[in-house]
Amino acid sequence: MPLRALSNASVVHLVGALTMLLSVPSSVQRAADPPLVTVVARDHAFEAPDTLRAGVTRFRLRDLGPTKHQLVIYRLADSVSLKEFYDAMKVGRASPAGIRSLGGAQEAEDISIVLAPGRYVFACMHGFEDGTSHLSRGMFRAFTVIRGADGSTDAVPPKADATLTMSDYTYKLTGELAPGRRVLRIVNAGPQEHHVMIQRLMPGRTITDVERWFAAGRRTERPVMPIFWGTTRQSPGETLYATIDVTAGGYILLCRVPDSGDGRPHVDHGMRGEIRVAE
């Protein structure tokens, strides 16, 4: 069809439409990536901002060791002092009333969390042979979350490719993970704290081989590779978004959080699962 010249009226309408489109706030046109906060871990302290803005925040752990560290983000009630937090959490038990674990990172992967205004703590809960944690040696750092200058919060979470729901003592994956860089929404729907650690299955192995391995006291040939990715403990009802590089193959999910009843890790209560990523 031959192109025709636009009339003056058509030009006016076109310019008006473009003006309206360009005047739409960027947050409506496309949700911006959450701000990235890099948390540096050393023996035994964190380097991180003292103040953050409320809303969705992306965290990345940079572990400079020399011992291995993790990142757990806690929210404190106004009634809980920093000393009370330290006294309650230094031995690594479940979070008591007034202390909520929002989760975090085991490695250098990105995790995103919706932060409400309030008081928070970065902590490392890795343990020593005497039963104490890195936190007990001072590895925690308080920070405050405030509203923006206009009183607003950025609370649009990342778009998830799939959802992993944790409960006592199971994992349920809703949706499919395809190879590539993916966002996994992780929800704790159980009455206890949980997390997820992921191990890649050896070629040709399944969760049945893993169950036999556990039944044999883990003394036979390993059916899984070492843990390569994981989150840290989340209190009941908490949600985080994890960015993970997925390749085709089989994976085992497990939880090592101590049980609130007998203190044994949840994996010993059968909290294991399998997912398959197709080519």
Protein described:
The chain is mainly β and 279 residues long. It folds into two domains: 36-146, Cupredoxins -  blue copper proteins (Immunoglobulin-like, Sandwich), CATH 2.60.40; 162-277, Immunoglobulin-like. 13% of the residues lie in helices and 39% in strands. It is built from four helices and 17 strands. It has a nine-stranded mixed beta sheet, with no helix packed on it. A hairpin with a 2-residue loop joins strand 1 and strand 2. The longest helix has 15 residues, at 8-22. The radius of gyration is 23 Å and the shape is globular. 28% of the residues are buried. The model is unreliable at 1-30 (pLDDT under 50).
Task: Describe this structure in a few short sentences.
With 279 residues, the protein is mainly β. 13% of the residues lie in helices and 39% in strands.
State the order of secondary-structure elements, H for helix, E for strand.
Answer: HHEEEEEHEEEEEEEEHEEEE
In percent terms, what proportion of residues is strand? 35-45%
Provide the CATH topology of the largest domain: Immunoglobulin-like
Number of domains: 2
Radius of gyration: 23 Å
Low-pLDDT parts are: 1-30
Q: How many helices does DSSP assign? A: 4
For the record, the CATH architecture of the largest domain stands as Sandwich
CATH evolutionary superfamily of the largest domain: Cupredoxins -  blue copper proteins
Helix content: 10-25%
What is the SS-derived class?
mainly beta
Overall 3D form:
globular
